[in-house]
């Protein structure tokens, strides 16, 4: 997704969840390749109740030379849970 | 009592999701990164990655060798391998590390403008599913390709 596409995608999700919290399990840096890998999980509240949204992620960030902006982001998600969450949020 | 790597993986996989604590302990992931043995775990991680990828002797009953319908375990397993294979982060106060935490905080704030402020104009965001990841894919998992192999070649 380009920035424009991601903004559209994310803007549709934001109103559906609140109290979004991320728990970081581990962070690995690779300065040689300017990458950071994060294992994390999230929880949030939704119209279905408190803590009804949640996901697990492996996030790979690729940075520019300054280390202050990402040039690429790969997000691995549990697709079964994502499907369930989509039904919960948008169904 | 010591087990072979194959036996250990088989033991862990038999109980589905409960295998992760087992492999975590086997790979010293329960220890702080600075206290983990450096050489042996890397060898183990490499052996494990090849074992998982090739699946020459499947520990899973009725394994479909073309595609294994695991949901979460693959990425967790690969992340475990990554954690073992990579040296501890040299500087947790690096700019990249700080930016990463700031990005995650932006997500918690659910501020799309804040999130986008950390991206270059041509940034690409890819979302990949973990279900049905083909274990027998001939090319190693992108995480391993991208991170473990390049860094291992630099390891003395």
Explain what you see.
The complex is a heterodimer of chains A (91) and B (156). Chain A is an alpha+beta fold. Chain A has one domain (3-90): Roll (Nuclear Transport Factor 2, Chain: A), CATH 3.10.450. Chain A is 25% helix and 54% strand. Chain A contains two helices and four strands, in the order αββββα. Chain A has helices at 3-13, 79-90; strands at 17-30, 35-46, 49-63, 70-77. A four-stranded antiparallel sheet of chain A has the order 1-2-3-4. Chain A starts with a helix and ends with a helix. The model of chain A has no long low-confidence stretch (mean pLDDT 87). With 156 residues, chain B is mainly α. The longest helix of chain B is centred in the N-terminal third of the chain and has 16 residues, at 39-54. Chain B has one domain. Chain B has helices at 5-14, 19-26, 39-54, 73-85, 95-109, 112-116, 142-154; one strand at residues 119-129. The model of chain B is unreliable at 1-6, 12-17, 53-74 and 132-156 (pLDDT under 50). Helices cover 51% and strands 7% of the residues of chain B. Classes of the chains: A alpha+beta (91), B mainly alpha (156).
CATH topology term of chain A:
Nuclear Transport Factor 2, Chain: A
Count of runs of 4 or more consecutive helical residues of chain A = 2
Shape, per Cα inertia axes of chain B: elongated
Distance between the termini of chain A: 24 Å
Strand and helix order of chain A: HEEEEH
Give the end-to-end Cα distance of chain B, rounded to a whole number of Å.
31 Å
Helical content band of chain B: 40-55%
